[in-house]
Amino acid sequence: xxxxxGSIKCREIMQGSIxxxxxxxxxxxxxxxxxxxxxxxxxxxxxxxxxxxGNINSKYINADSEFSAASILYGASAAGVxxxxxxxxxxxxxxxxxxxxxxxxRLPAVFSAVNRSLSPPINIQVDHQDTMTLRDSGLIQxxxxxxxxxxxxxxxxxxxAEDLDVLLPAMVCMDGWIISHAYEPVTLWxxxxxxxxxxxxxxxxxVNPQKPLTYGALTDDDKITEFKxxxxxxxxxxxxxxxxxxxxxxxxxxxxxxxxVETYYTEGAETIILAMxxxxxxxxxxxxxxxAENKKVGLLKIRSFRPFPASRIREVxxxxxxxxxxxxxxxxxxxxxxxxxxxxxxxxxxxxxxINYIAGIGGRELYPHNIKEIITESEKLSAAGTVxxxxxxxxxxxxxx
Amino acid sequence: MKLNLxxxxxxxxxxxxxxxxxxxxxxxxxxEKCTGCGVCELFCPDSSIVITGGLASIDxxxxxxxxxxxxxxxxxxxKMQPEGEESR
Lengths: 401, 88
Ligand code: SF4
Ligand code: SF4
What we know:
The complex is a heterodimer. Chain A is of the alpha/beta class. Chain A folds into 2 domains: 5-253, Thiamin diphosphate (ThDP)-binding fold, Pyr/PP domains (Rossmann fold, 3-Layer(aba) Sandwich), CATH 3.40.50; 261-400, Rossmann fold. Chain A has helices at 16-27, 41-52, 66-78, 89-105, 129-132, 147-162, 191-198, 224-253, 279-292, 310-317, 337-345, 368-384; strands at residues 8-15, 31-34, 59-62, 83-87, 110-115, 140-143, 170-175, 183-189, 213-214, 261-264, 271-275, 297-302, 304-306, 322-327, 330-331, 335-336, 353-358, 392-393. The longest helix of chain A is centred in the middle third of the chain and has 30 residues, at 224-253. The model of chain A has no long low-confidence stretch (mean pLDDT 97). By secondary structure, chain B is of the alpha+beta class. Chain B has a single domain, classed as Alpha-Beta Plaits. Chain B contains 2 helices and 5 strands; from the N terminus they run ββαββαβ. In chain B, strands 2-5 form a two-stranded antiparallel ribbon. A two-stranded antiparallel ribbon of chain B has the order 3-4. Chain B is elongated, with a radius of gyration of 15 Å. Chain B starts with 8 loop residues before the first strand and ends in a 6-residue tail after the last strand. Classes of the chains: A alpha/beta, B alpha+beta. The interface between A and B is medium-sized, with 19 and 10 residues.
């Protein structure tokens, strides 16, 4: 792909957190509300540096907890200010109450979620349990595969969240360490190009003492369903915006990572793997190796988990024999979360067998050979027609239980 | 009528939304027992009690009938009575 040279600021080998912080800094959020937690802290530390050095003009507020940090964003966003925070793991759980409120109040604050396992036991490595637990809030969630996608998606997501047809909080989910702390060659874009692309946030309401408003009013059963429906509909409309903004981004910057999904060799594939986040990169390596052996394997990377692109998933999987969903999170006793939703999307579709693996929990490493093993196992189950309806815990060490 | 985005609405909704309509029991003050100490006034969550002339008096437009005042009055000078049956 030919990158638009005019909009490049620099191309360097950098750490993911710094690349993201530089990009968010270029957007100069009016308010940045923060509380540190590993592995997110490098992002807000670098933003603090940008503010302290006078590079950006944001109001940087240190809070006493993630709950307060999110509440600061709620207030700022209600006042019509572009607002931003980052968190991980338990910190995201502590923000949850506020995030539901933001979605219901239609406040488009933006978060970076640096994915990390939930306690206990304490584990600071990556899985998706933290962000997936926020899935019912009305929050937009885009999962990214590498540092460049993290950078580009942060630019896109402000425009999506702040669109007047959407107006919902939004989160870029990036895998802890693998994306936040790794160093990769990355293109940072010119501040001006970034600001031109995102535009200015025009809120539908403003906090003005001359024209006071009520936020968070009480509603009875005669209207509450309708309010909830409006959140559902807005999140649905976000799907169209994500597609549109990804297309516009490609035109403006020449960089593209898919829209609500990204497909990799899915055309005519007999087996398609579905996954989110950095594991998609590993899966691509495994697929390249399998394709060299003429195996008809492809990847359907889910970029947007919320809104959930059910019809796109149906479309891509329609010709496949076997679909393998790799989940880095699960709903206890029910299965992988992505797996369950993919199954629901394909219900009564006469589509492929769906095998759901729970893998890569708490940073357990997944290499291309693990992916190939998962594919081989799944194809066997599918060919024998013995697909389990329950999700399988991959590489579970039964000797320890 | 269309719902406002995010439930954000004009301020001062309580001017229109009378919480007194929720009530099915109303607190009634026993004028013999009440000393006008003001404890009930402090505790009423809807600011529906004012002390006037040394006596508690209830604002029926906003009193939602929760009964907190009854519990807090240590002189047992307030009783809840079914709406419409209160003796005034
Ligand atoms: S608490 Fe009882 S005694 Fe005191 S003002 Fe209220 S009703 Fe009267
Ligand atoms: S019943 Fe409740 S609302 Fe009514 S006056 Fe007593 S404390 Fe106030």
